[in-house]
Amino acid sequence: MAYVAGVDSSTQSCKVVVRDADTGAVVRTGRAPHPDGTEVAPAAWWDALRAAIADAGGLADVAAISVGGQQHGMVVLDADGRVIRDALLWNDTRSAGAARELIAEFGAAELARRTGSVPVASFTATKLRWLRDAEPENAARVAAVALPHDWLSWRLRGYGPADEGPLGPDLTELATDRSDASGTSYWDPATGGHDHELLIAALGHDATLPRIVGPGEAMGETVEQEGIPAGIVVGPGAGDNAAAALGLGARSGDVVVSIGTSGTVFAVTDAPIADETGTVAGFADASGLFLPLVATLNAARVLDRTAALLGVDHAGLGELALAAEPGSGGLVLQPYFEGERTPNLPDATATLFGMTLASTTRENLARAAIEGMLCGLADGLDAVRRLGVSASRVLLVGGAAANPAVSRIAAEVFDAPVEVPEPGEYVALGATVQAAWVLTGARPEWRPATLARPTAATVPLIREQYAARAGA
Ligand SMILES: Nc1ncnc2c1ncn2[C@@H]1O[C@H](COP(=O)(O)OP(=O)(O)O)[C@@H](O)[C@H]1O
Ligand SMILES: O=C(CO)[C@@H](O)[C@H](O)COP(=O)(O)O
């Protein structure tokens, strides 16, 4: 009996799942929080990873591990392997102008052709361009650029600055996988390799980029460090959405909707896409296929903030929402609290429409928050469908999917059957799939059971009034 571990180093927390590599049974889990903010010291992720590993009972009996992580975050290293400045995360919008500049220089169609996507502020290349212009001294020191999962895997394998990593700062040992590389805007889906010309255009000079490790291939193994035993095989890791697709065993006809800090809508496809409008990102998946994806900046935290405003917990928010009629009495929340990525409105703020003395109730506000957040994702579902993706069912995952009101209202908003898989950390579970794949040489076929199939009928009014009031 061998155990494998999977990590989800996500925006708000780090989660670790340990699983039996033969049966797929989850044997133990752990988690630790990440700091708030869109700019984070990577050392905090490393501390949280070791805390989450300890919370999961350690890795003494684990044979292989793989790390899934939030996509796009800019981790810049100097020649000594030191982090030059705090990482800018996917939800940091300061590089919106840099994104516009890169599009003006290359053209949206050319960038879509070369990288699969048209960049917005989330993408790593735009953050490097921002660094070049706003912090030229920091930019000049950049010797290597990594993503959160690449950097954590490097640290797990013992690399780091001389006083932190037992094996020292060998930047050529940085490694990533194609799913995470595809979110940089300097990765080429046609060759599967990095496009250094685009990196240079963004940063102003060339730098070491992580080697791209294929599905089922090991990056290396761990060395003895505080809380980490030696000799654990380290799998390729993945961007969190690609890892979730693996954890769910998503197949043709499945569209995954994840409601975490980000809202994402994605599917696994055989062929790459190149959407010149920039609505759908042409990412790669973690199995050698592709992962067209729409992401929003405003998802679970819309509900967190609304619940706090109403003085209730998540369950209370759900109860209030289900006490209101579909359509929330005409109250419509356009939930752009953090600006928005899809549609690309980085400076937008949220707006509540349709307030009358009759409509402005606690129940309607709770429901309008859930409806508004889901309408943005339903627009995303339409966008991936327009590119030829079929949706025979919507798999609802992420922290907020646990809320019965969210799944019920999702069934009213989406015009496809909604299924909620049994509760699980699907990103970390996907990383365990990678770890087991590396260990055994074969991709395990682990699929979750279904927890719920909400039967509510689609209520077109919800999207109609959202489009009329809040359609961007
Ligand atoms: N029952 C619930 N209803 C609504 N939101 C929830 C519920 N449980 C957790 N959340 C929210 O889900 C988010 C965490 O989800 P998760 O998918 O782990 O996010 P991330 O991967 O971005 O860190 C938090 O904002 C949390 O408050
Ligand atoms: O930017 C994207 C996808 O392109 C986000 O999905 C991030 O990958 C962060 O995910 P969560 O922490 O919200 O799961």
From TrEMBL:
Binding site for substrate: 71-72
Reaction(s) catalysed by this chain's protein: D-xylulose + ATP = D-xylulose 5-phosphate + ADP + H(+)
Annotated Pfam families: FGGY_C, FGGY_N
InterPro entries cross-referenced by the UniProt entry: ATPase_NBD, Carb_kinase_FGGY, Carb_kinase_FGGY_CS, FGGY_C, FGGY_Carb_Kinase, FGGY_N, Xylulokinase
EC nos: 2.7.1.17
Top-level taxon in the UniProt lineage: Bacteria
Signal peptide stretch: none
Enzyme class: transferase
Record-level Gene Ontology MF annotations: D-xylulokinase activity
Enzyme active site: 240
Keyword Plastid in record: no
The keyword ATP-binding is annotated on this UniProt entry: yes
Domain spans labelled Carbohydrate kinase FGGY C-terminal: 256-437
Keywords: ATP-binding, Carbohydrate metabolism, Kinase, Nucleotide-binding, Transferase, Xylose metabolism
Domain Carbohydrate kinase FGGY N-terminal residue range list: 3-247
Annotated site location: Important for activity: 8
Protein family per UniProt: Belongs to the FGGY kinase family.
Alphabetized NCBIfam families for the sequence: XylB
Known function: Catalyzes the phosphorylation of D-xylulose to D-xylulose 5-phosphate.
Name this protein carries in UniProt: Xylulose kinase
Originating organism: Protaetiibacter mangrovi
